[in-house]
Amino acid sequence: MSNHSYQGVIHRYKKYLPVSDRTPIVTLLEGNTPLIFSPKISNILGKNFRVYLKYEGLNPTGSFKDRGMTVAVSKAKEEGQCAIVCASTGNTSASASAYAARAGIKCIVVIPSGAIALGKLAQALIHNAKVIAIDGNFDDALSIVRELSLNYPVRLVNSLNPHRIEGQKTAAFEVVDTLGEAPLFHSLPVGNAGNITAYWKGYKEYYSYSKINRLPIMLGFQAKGASPIVKGKPIKKPKTIATAIRIGNPASWQMAVKAKEESGGIIDAVTDKEIIYAYKFLSREEGIFVEPASAASVAGLFKIRKEGYFDRFIKDFDKIVIVCTLTGHGLKDPQLAVSKVKSPKIIKPTIKEVAKETRL
Ligand SMILES: *Cc1c(COP(=O)(O)O)cnc(C)c1O
Fold first, then answer.
1. DSSP 3-state helix, strand, coil percentages of the chain (rounded to 5)?
2. How far is the CA of 224 from the centre of ligand 1 (A)?
3. Starting from the edge strand earliest in sequence, which strands make up the sheet with 266-270, in order?
4. Mean pLDDT of the chain
């Protein structure tokens, strides 16, 4: 194999991860995702802004969850586990089932019935996971699998598993390795809050290794109807169109608050309307199709820009670099996409009719 061929996040960042030569690496070559400059979002924010999009939808199963799963599944295999389990709003189960298939171990996923995007359900099923739908929400599913993993020989691979956070922190490393420095701000959606925890850990580690000489300010965005951290209390029945962040009692709540406080950042909420606006903006204006939850990071930027949040930074910095994590691919939920736009009109099959309709 040539020195240039990419071998996944464990191989690339081995020295920062809890692995050894004895760890059997289970990888689908996750990570190494593009950091795409967004001229249009930069322009909307203002002339000194440089906004980059970390497009995590291009991971093997279509979300950032693969970064954590390669580490969690490799460690489970190293420790001789024959089965893994997770609760999921969709992407964790898609990722767990693919990595379990690759590792040759059993995968059990517990999902809230009727609340999973079709693409994600299809992934878990086709990778041959044992899928259990419960008549409850994500928070109920998580408490069940937590208990299950304490009482049965099965490894929990939700982000409560510290190996997940370890793997996910590699996204922060990649951002720095690409930009050559930390951005001034890092914006991302917040659901169970594992990812904001992981990015913050990654940036802090790179700082401690003197790879960067300052840390970014973290900007986390929940959906308004599922914003326990913003409200300061768990939400019994979280509601939002963005199913990946429809979480009422985040597992990494305290860590997210710590990331916000230590970085001098914010955790705020955006409405479904703001999320859908950003979702459409990304696909129409930048050619990047993400799932609604992912668009919360961009929706949040638009919102706080309008509120004047960046004003004092504009005075102090001549260049404001922002990285936005786009957590998952839009093809996960094609039904939602189609429901948000006009259906194609059916016309007579003639050149004249087509030319007329398309105003050529
Ligand atoms: C899991 C997920 C999130 C939320 O990440 P947390 O670590 O739970 O905060 C956001 N977007 C997508 C697409 C996800 O799959």
1. 45, 15, 35
2. 15
3. 35-37, 49-55, 320-326, 185-189, 217-223, 266-270
4. 96
The alpha carbon dihedral of 66, 67, 68, 74 has a sign of: positive
CB of 86 within 6 A of ligand 1: the answer is: no
| Alpha carbon nearest to ligand 1 atom 2, residue | 244
Whether the Cβ atoms of residue 304 and residue 220 lie closer than 8 Å to each other: no
Integer angstrom CA distances of residue 297 from 12, 35, 129, 271, 327: 27, 15, 31, 12, 9
The DSSP H or E segment spanning 290 is none
Strand ranges across the sheet with 155-156: 130-134, 106-112, 83-87, 155-156
Judge if pTM exceeds 0.85: yes
Helix or strand run (H / E) with residue 267: strand 266-270
168 C-beta closer than 6 A to ligand 1: no
Residue bearing the CA closest to ligand 1, atom 15: 91
The residues near 272 (Cβ < 8 Å, ≥ 6 apart) are 223, 224, 225, 240, 241, 242, 292
In testing the pocket of ligand 1, which one of 160, 195, 240, 324 has its CB within 8 Å of the most ligand atoms?
Answer: 195
Tens-place pLDDT, residues 118-151: 999 999 999 999 999 999 998 899 999 999 999 9
CB 179 within 8 A of CB 216: no
Please, where are the H alpha helices in 49-90?
65-78
Angle formed at CA 64 by CA 106 and CA 192, multiple of 5 degrees: 85
252 alpha carbon to ligand 1 midpoint, in Å? 12
Instruction: Give 2's pLDDT tier (boundaries 50, 70, 90).
Output: low
> What is the reported pLDDT for 89?
86
